[in-house]
Amino acid sequence: MDPLFSHRPESDQRPTAQEAPPPRVYRFTVPVPREVAYSAFTGDLHLWWPSNYTGFGEGTHPYIEDGIVGEESEAGDTQVWGEVISEAPPSAIELSWTLAWRAAAPMRVLVEFDEAEGGASTNVTFTHDGWAAGSEGREQYEKYSEWPIILGRYVAYFGVSPEAIETVS
User: Using DSSP, how many helices (H) and how many strands (E) does the chain show?
Assistant: First the structure.
């Protein structure tokens, strides 16, 4: 006899080796209007991005410019980290992300900026997803696990403690 309620067997509910990992989602609030929060994220990347999370290290200049996310070394060499997929200033920016990964297997980073406290503050939601399926996706997921450290530098730029970053998933 069939059960009254139809449920998938438990084994079907577990991720398979071919499924992509879940998104990494972080939330935090910065004490500035969203125009300022957005501008600092996109235009002041070189002021808050930690140099130990770059390809060229100390003295590098990270940027988001002309649809490219990248960095320029002191010697003028460049490295592309990704591309801007869509931009809706000051509400959101979506990136194709390949920093330190194969350009043929881009992931997605979406940063959303929502007004808070009558516009005096900004709630930011940072989502990294678009992982490849299978073992490559698991490798991507593990490699990009230190966003709280990087985003901690962004919130510190506004005088906010990095502990204010909430890991949603």
Answer: 5, 8
Q: Is 131 helix (H, G, I), strand (E, B) or coil?
A: coil
Q: Nearest CA to 57 among 75, 82, 83, 84?
A: 75
d(CA 152, CA 49): 9
For residue 68, what are its two tokens? 């490219």
- 32-61 pLDDT per residue, tens: 999 999 999 999 999 999 999 999 999 999
Candidates 3.30.390.30, 3.30.530.20, 3.40.50.300, 3.40.190.10; CATH matching 20-167: 3.30.530.20
Q: Sort strands 92-97 and 107-116 into parallel, antiparallel or unpaired.
A: antiparallel
CA dihedral 40, 166, 145, 128 (to 10 degrees): -60
For the chain, where are the alpha helices, taking DSSP H only? 10-13, 34-43, 45-48, 134-143, 147-156
Check if the beta carbon of residue 137 is closer than 8 Å to that of residue 21: yes
Instruction: Report whether 43 contacts 36 (CB < 8 A).
Output: no
- Say if residue 97's pLDDT is above 80: yes
Find residue 70's DSSP bridge partners.
63, 80
Residue 48 to residue 58: CA distance in whole angstroms = 13
**The two three-digit tokens of residue 41, written as one number:** 């994220």
pTM of the predicted model as reported, rounded to 2 decimal places: 0.87
